Automatic annotation (TrEMBL):
This protein's name: Geranylgeranyl transferase type-2 subunit beta
One Gene Ontology term of the molecular function aspect: metal ion binding
Keyword hit for Zinc: yes
Species assigned in the record: Seminavis robusta
PANTHER family, per the entry: GERANYLGERANYL TRANSFERASE TYPE BETA SUBUNIT, GERANYLGERANYL TRANSFERASE TYPE-2 SUBUNIT BETA
Keyword Phosphoprotein appears in the UniProt entry: no
Superkingdom of origin: Eukaryota
Name of the top EC class for this enzyme: transferase
SUPFAM superfamilies in UniProt: Terpenoid cyclases/Protein prenyltransferases (SSF48239)
Details of cofactor binding: Binds 1 zinc ion per subunit.
Residue ranges constituting the Prenyltransferase alpha-alpha toroid domain according to the UniProt record: 34-353
GO-annotated cellular components: Rab-protein geranylgeranyltransferase complex
Keywords of this entry: Metal-binding, Prenyltransferase, Repeat, Transferase, Zinc
């Protein structure tokens, strides 16, 4: 959505090596290249002749969220604002990202669409709220005028029969939508507008014999759905109903010989699962159940060392989706901030809300995490976590 300001200097040659003592031949982390890739992506997608821009027009809202959050793990909030034009226009771009987000509000439904003029949907409504949170604009008068309608839109998606959520008025049900609804309402301090207990019960009804979760009742377990289900249970304060050991076993089995993680049995490793799986292992206190060094090396090998960005697998083409999830995975592993120490105090990612921990802390958001300690009951290991301290617990 934005281009890089001409006054902003980006060092495309910056290469910061990650120190992973137990792994040899670890590629460097190209922080400068990734910053440049993210900053220049919108200009590329906005070009009238851009094929990529045309085929991704419908999910631009999520693309902006991925871009901003990835950059927020590499740069300070002030730098992100200048580079991306978050709250003010940049050279060559007449409106800020915040202005654009507000223009994506769908008056008819009350939610936000994936782009201007698109129908409202829970997926893009959450992305819009996350972007406004990143920009510290949830108190913007323009959004406050829409807030009740947005809450009504989200709350109206819950089905009274089983507590599930539809993505929009057309009725598709998916566990992703439950997470989107609970996360959105939690950020907006409106969880009391839905039946949270019933929503958690629906999530639990989608649990399979292997410990994983599917998109609906009886659907195959998938690592992406596992994140949305466990994240929703965390927000709903229902982690005590989770069989974390069985789930942790299934997730640990997703690590391939390459060190990467796959989403289902017999599938190839893909960088995006670095987030989907690591976030759940972080929430449940079981990050040590996988080889973290091998995973970090796999992510680093998926970087484009010429133009920046991260691909799904080594030597494939980079895209913003995998760039976000790769950088987020490195953040959860603790490797990213060993490479860029100046970012460590304020730019880590929260495993429940998928936002920088300083943003989550400022909003006063709470979920649950488990601290894995032998001999403790599940109830004793559950904690209402403070994001300023939880990161230390996740890696013990």
């Amino acid at each position: 959505m934005t281009t890089t300001s001409s006054s902003t200097s980006i060092d495309k040659t910056q290469k910061v090596s990650l120190q992973v003592p137990t792994t040899t031949d670890v590629p460097p982390f190209f922080a400068g290249l990734h910053t440049s890739y993210i900053a220049g992506l919108a200009e590329k997608l906005d070009a009238k002749t851009s094929y990529e821009g045309a085929v991704t027009e419908h999910l631009r809202m999520s693309g902006v969220y991925w871009s901003l959050t990835a950059l927020s793990l590499l740069k300070s909030p002030e730098e992100v604002d200048v580079i991306m034009g978050l709250t003010a226009p940049t050279a060559g771009r007449p409106i800020s990202i915040v202005d654009w987000v507000l223009q994506c509000y769908d008056n008819r439904s009350g939610g936000f669409g994936g782009n201007i003029g698109h129908d409202g949907h829970l997926l893009y409504t959450l992305s819009a709220i996350q972007i406004l949170a990143l920009a510290d604009r949830l108190q913007d008068e323009r959004f406050l005028n829409l807030k009740e309608s947005v809450i009504d839109f989200v709350a109206a998606r819950q089905q009274p029969t089983d507590g599930s959520f539809t993505g929009d008025e057309w009725g598709e049900i998916d566990t992703r939508f439950t997470y989107c609804a609970l996360s959105s309402l939690s950020i907006l301090k409106a969880l009391d507008r839905v039946n949270v207990t019933q929503a958690a019960d629906f999530i639990l009804s989608c649990r399979n014999f292997d410990g994983g979760f599917g998109c609906t009742i009886g659907a195959e377990s998938h690592a992406g759905q596992v994140f949305t289900c466990v994240g929703a249970l965390s927000i709903a304060k229902s982690l005590h109903k989770l069989d974390a050991d069985l789930l942790g076993w299934w997730l640990a089995e997703r690590q391939c010989d390459s060190g990467g993680l796959n989403g289902r049995p017999e599938k190839q490793a893909d960088v995006c699962y670095s987030w989907w799986i690591l976030s759940v292992l972080s929430i449940t206190g079981r990050v040590s159940w996988i080889n973290r060094d091998k995973l970090a090396t796999f992510i680093l090998k998926c970087q484009d060392d010429e133009d920046g960005g991260i691909a799904d697998r080594p030597d494939d083409m980079a895209d913003i989706f995998h760039t976000f999830f790769g950088i987020s995975g490195l953040s959860l592993l603790g490797h990213l901030h060993a490479a860029i120490p100046e970012c460590a105090p304020f730019r880590q990612i929260d495993p429940v809300y998928a936002l920088p921990t300083d943003v989550v802390q400022k909003l006063g958001l709470q979920g649950q995490i488990m601290v894995a300690q032998e001999g403790d009951s599940v109830e004793e290991r559950l904690q209402q976590y403070d994001t300023l301290t939880s990161q230390h617990k996740l890696f013990q």
